[in-house]
Amino acid sequence: MGLLARVRKEWFIIGIVAAIVSAKLQPAVGLKGGPLRPEFTITYVAVSAIFFNSGLSLKTEELTSALLHVKLHLFVQSFTLVFFPVAMWLCIKLLALTSINTWLLRGLQTVGCMPPPVSSAVILTKAVGGNESFIINLGSSSSVPFSSIFSQLFMTVVVPLILGQVSRRFLRDWLERRKPPFGVISSLVLLMIIYTTFCETFSNPDIELDHLSLLLITFIIFCIQLSFMLLTFVFSTQKQSGFTPADTVAIMFCATHKSLTLGIPMLKIVFEGYEHLSLISVPLLIYHPAQILLGSILVPTIKSWMNSRQKVDKTYSPVLNWSQTGANWQLINWS
């Protein structure tokens, strides 16, 4: 792959680096009261735009279809929103004994509470050939009192999502015909949020980030992802689990990935006014490229395993075809 093709493929990661560097060079542009007026354009307009875009892009029939995969859905959501946060909390209790920056550890805790993404999980699952039809992005989390942010959450998250879904009903034919770049739009808005967040950091001389803490957090994130992918693989391949190899692939990617698109706006809402918001955001900014990198590296291995497993199942497992007559289920043939 040529350099230009690589840049096009990884433009968002490059954009994150560029946004942070730009914030370092010109932090005054993205400060409150500055030319961008982030207290309005980012806090309300940009965040609302991302969730409206999500509501507009998500197919209603896919949301309905996702609900039919009850067992698979419950497994992923339980692992992502219950086991993951608890495991991270225990891990952070141990890491608190080290010299790692406290705000980075708090950011790591928020990563554990984030919902899974649609984009990276679906892309990697499709690359392997797994079951991507049920993957859906739901939920959010908070680490401050809910009453203090309920109004903003409702107006900038829930309402835009609903409006997006309602608008889709009227624009469905046009959307399917033109196929607007929803992902690119959300990514560009997200880069604006990242830029203004780091402008606040670099304008505050009291905030310092030591390189050792950053390296340790990066190493820990890679270890967490590998460990949790292995854990979900072991759980979902047990005979009593009832999951197919394609289901296992979807579980591995969806249950261990975290959404940057929803995560950064949620952090912006929950930690609005925190001077250490950018440090809290750092683990999620690292987690995003890390999950894509690891997923891309593991795709050939996982695809090979899934194909071999499916061949074994096809060779040694009889396939039952059933026909319903009245209230009785009858076996009609083996294939």
Automatic annotation (TrEMBL):
Listed transmembrane segments: 12-29, 41-58, 79-100, 144-163, 184-203, 215-237, 249-271, 277-299
Alphabetical list of Gene3D superfamilies matching this protein: 1.20.1530.20
Keywords carried by this UniProt record: Cell membrane, Endoplasmic reticulum, Ion transport, Membrane, Sodium, Sodium transport, Symport, Transmembrane, Transmembrane helix, Transport
GO molecular-function terms, A-Z: symporter activity
One BP term from GO: sodium ion transport
Cellular location(s): Cell membrane; Endoplasmic reticulum membrane
GO cellular component, one term: endoplasmic reticulum membrane
Keyword Ribonucleoprotein on entry: no
Entry-linked Pfam families: SBF_like (PF13593)
Isomerase found in the keyword field: no
Function: Does not show transport activity towards bile acids or steroid sulfates.
PANTHER family tied to this protein: SODIUM_BILE ACID COTRANSPORTER 7, SOLUTE CARRIER FAMILY 10 MEMBER 7
Family that this chain belongs to: Belongs to the bile acid:sodium symporter (BASS) (TC 2.A.28) family.
Protein known as: Sodium/bile acid cotransporter
Origin species: Oncorhynchus mykiss (Rainbow trout)
